[in-house]
Amino acid sequence: MKIAKPLVVFDLETTGTWIEKDKIVEIGMVKLMPDGSKHDYVKRVNPGMPIPVNVSRIIDITDKDVKDAPPFKEIAREVMEFIGDSDLGGFNIQRFDLPVLEREFLEAGVTFKWNERDIYDAQKVFHIHEKRDLMAAYQLFCNKELTNAHTALGDAEATFEILDAQIKKYGSEEQGIESLKDFDYEQSSAYFDAERKFSWWNGNLYPAFGKYRRKKHIKDIVKKDRSYLEWISRADFSDEIKVMAEKALLGEFPKPPEGI
């Protein structure tokens, strides 16, 4: 790979997908130099919070694996020293990894102005040049061309075949469609309700909208702003949400699903 200045390609494994709250559990970096030399850096990190079971299944890192690892603040300066003034590369880093890393650096008292560097995001290049629509999925999983695309029945039949092929490729034919449940990208912060107005994070229930979005969980809101939940119980929300708000005001809080 021809480069004019150092390039650090990196990836983070984290406790979940909330940029504002989830923590790094592993950081891996490859540094390429203009002379062709390459240097690696990898470090496990104690996130200071439990790793959800569903996340551990995906990243294959458990609480036990990181219990003796340092917190990010202890390695922040060596991570920054490794990065130096390099350009940065990765997969989906602009939407997730870079904002998470910036927040972790900030909490450790280290300045990280990634938007002042050149960023090479392989996902953006991939999405621009390779189709990701139903026709492409039908070709990939079923090895067929979708000849009646953009008709409701044709698209539905093709999607049925794709799901069947995905069960065989990634899931379990014995378990059937339920074997694809583990492929939910946001399962670490699973939604409480069908409208996705509230979601679980680290065992607590947070609003996913409005002024308290991902800032305060329900128990904190009950203590500091009961009128907010009183408004929810009267406003145009689903019965599920209204009942939850009414019970929370009485001190009855929902329990998180297993593994969240």
Question: Your description of this structure?
Answer:
The two termini are 41 Å apart. The protein has 3 domains: 7-126, Ribonuclease H-like superfamily/Ribonuclease H (Nucleotidyltransferase, domain 5), CATH 3.30.420.10; 134-183, no CATH class; 190-249, no CATH class. The mean pLDDT is 90. Strands 3-2-1-4-5 form a 5-stranded mixed beta sheet. With 260 residues, it is α/β, with parallel strands linked by helices. It is built from 10 helices and 7 strands. It is globular and about 65 Å long.
Task: Describe the structure using short key phrases.
globular; two-stranded antiparallel ribbon; alpha/beta; 260 residues; 39% helix; five-stranded mixed beta sheet; Nucleotidyltransferase, domain 5; 3 domains
Q: What sort of overall outline do the alpha carbons produce when their principal axes are compared?
A: globular
What's the overall average pLDDT, rounded?
90
* SS elements, strand count: 7
Q: What strand line-up does the widest sheet have? A: 3-2-1-4-5
Rg over C-alpha atoms, rounded to the nearest angstrom: 22 Å
CATH architecture of the largest domain: 2-Layer Sandwich
Distance between the termini: 41 Å
> In this structure, how is the largest beta sheet organized?
5 strands, mixed
The helix/strand series, from N terminus to C terminus, equals: EEEHHHEHEHHHEEHHH
